[in-house]
Amino acid sequence: MSDKVASLDFEKFYNTIAGKSRNSPKVHNGINPSDKTKLWDVPIATEHDLDDAVKSGQEAFKKWSKTTWKDRQDILLQMVKELLSHRDEMAQLILKECGKPIQFAQLEVDAAAGVIKFHATIPPPKEQIIQDDKELNVSLRYVPLGVVGAICPWNFPLILSMQKIIPGLLTGNTVIVKPSPFTPYSALKFVEMSQKFLPPGVLQALDGDDRLGPMMTEHPGIEKISFTGSIATGKRIMMSSAKTLKRVTLELGGNSACIVCPDVDVNKVAPLVALGAFFNSGQLCVASKRLYVHTDIYKEFQEALLNVVKSWKVGPAGEPGMMLGPVQNEMQYNIVKGFFEDCAVNGYQFALGGEIGDAGGFSVQPAIIDNPPHSSRIVSEEPFGPIVPMMPWTTEEELLTRVNDTRTGLGGAVYCADQERAVNIAKQIEAGTIWINSFEKPLPNAFFSGHKESGIGGENGEQGLFAYLNAQAIHLYKVDVGKGAKL
User: Fold this and answer.
1) Residue ranges of the domains in the chain?
2) pLDDT band at residue 484 under the 50/70/90 scheme
3) Active-site position among 192, 223, 251, 382
4) Which end of the chain, N or C, is surrounded by fewer C-beta atoms within 10 Å?
């Protein structure tokens, strides 16, 4: 069934195809991680729905790709105004679908708006003149790809969708968004509310089950896949996309190190490290997942860190004053639980926490493991939850050997009063983004990419636009090829 997009109802959710809302015979439901209650029905897109969306996207691309950069930016400004007019409703969706306390749900809406605002102001990539002489003019320009498939994660469903949707649209592509089935609501509603500003087929959304992602990666009408998620899934997407030689951008997992030097003010830095490690209950791809603190301040810093985290309120997202909400879904809850169990079985020392209880939802009290072995799971793998190892270091040489002993390379943090030393350490970390004297907070104007198995390509910033463009070099030979001309 297809209907024109009606006034917004924040308790009804649809797929959006060719500018219209579409239901499906089959539905599924997100789960509120704070209390495990079932949320609203969401239609499960079929292969027919995907074919319709691709066909609509291809048709819309013919005109959308020829609109001016300024016209697209004007539309982005209308979209961000609409989003912010529904800030409270969108924040409530994120609170319920993600388990984010309200202040952080609102922060996600504001950050998503920030992505749009940034792209509404940046200039288009300039056409470059490579050579221009009496014989030859060589120019290089950039053209949009076509239909882009955006496969989005559950930890930050709105902002991480926006980081794919907005540069995709701005560069002249049409976009089909697939939100995570764990958190479909905010992304579906954003696409729905944006239809009034866009020609049909320019921005579409399909919620689906486990079959939809593979169907998108294999569909010959989709020219690019942008994916954020796990390394294992990213590898499968790359293999599947290779069948049609799609462009791919993969933002994958990380096991980021946080380095604390001996010259810092412990009381200033401990709260920042706590946020870096436990923000969103550790469900952040660039979160500080391994803490390395210089041996001279190790005990003092650990005590300060514990005091900060102990002061936080942890539990159901809807309760007032909450700092950390639950882990988002049962699958991830069980993964995190496995790390707790592995640490307990191996006799590692819990400086904080140690119990993982169930108070009706997926809440997990944060834990800090004191100096586990370098080879332990909690050091070598990514929990993606509120449990981190903390280990001492003595020399930079041995520290960096341990920090870089991983197949991931997404992010990292360095805290050091000596800024020159901090930059020198940061440059030796094998990762795409390093923060100095701050917890990890990606910005829309800074290119974001992973090294090693943490990704292919990147997004954000002016450089991120090129992920949605093909280069075209034009060679103009200045010879007379008219009738009667001698070559």
Assistant:
1) 2-252+454-473, 257-436
2) confident
3) 251
4) C
Tell how strand 387-393 and strand 290-294 pair up.
Answer: parallel
Active site residue 251: yes
Cα–Cα distance, 173 to 234 (Å, whole number):
22
Return the CATH number of the domain spanning residue range 2-252+454-473: 3.40.605.10
CA distance 430 to 407: 10
Q: Read off the pTM.
A: 0.95
- The number of angstroms, rounded, from the C-alpha of 228 to the middle of its chain's C-alpha atoms is 6
Same fold for the pair 2-252+454-473 and 257-436: no
Please write the tens of the pLDDT for every residue from 217-236: 999 999 999 999 999 999 99
- Return the amino acid letter for 266: V
Residue 164 is encoded by which pair of tokens? 């794919």
Residues 257-436: name the CATH superfamily.
Answer: Aldehyde Dehydrogenase; Chain A, domain 2 (3.40.309.10)
Distance CA 129, CA 473 (A): 10
Q: Give the distance, in angstroms, between the CA of residue 77 and the centroid of all CA atoms in the same chain.
A: 22
List, for residues 100-127, the tens digit of each pLDDT value.
999 999 999 999 999 999 999 999 999 9
How far is 337 from 341, CA to CA, in rounded Å? Answer: 6
